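Quick question, first post here. What does this chain look like in 3D?
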Amino acid sequence: MSETIFSKILSGAIPCHKVYEDDRVFAFLDINPLSTGHTLLIPKEAAKTLDALSEESAAALGRVLPRICRAVIAVTGVREYNVLENNGAGAHQAVAHVHFHIIPKPSSSEGLGVGWPARSLDTQAGAKLAARLREQFE
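> Answer (accepted):
Ran it through. Tokens below.
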């Protein structure tokens, strides 16, 4: 995988405001925050998208993510927040390294703004799709 701003942060080549670190994950403040407390959580393993990440690193992210959220709530006093993780440029991923954003939502004008163009799910098409997805676990 090519070098990214996150690999440079992990190596110490680029400074950051570290929030948390263990043997598998690293958390730091976003340099262009959407709100106060906007924190990034990344695996130390270099993987572009979540599906390419090892189960061990994914488990470490899952273990630490709630802890980061609790810390952000405690420090900012903001109880509402978004957790965002994008995969691929078409899905708005700007850095090709798995990363989760924890973004406090203190008001309607701060934090993440989200559009949600929901559609309805056809019952028969849903049943077929769910069956095909289940097959991937067999």
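Residues 5-114 form a domain with the HIT family, subunit A fold (CATH 3.30.428.10).
Strands lie at 18-21, 25-29, 39-43, 81-84, 100-104.
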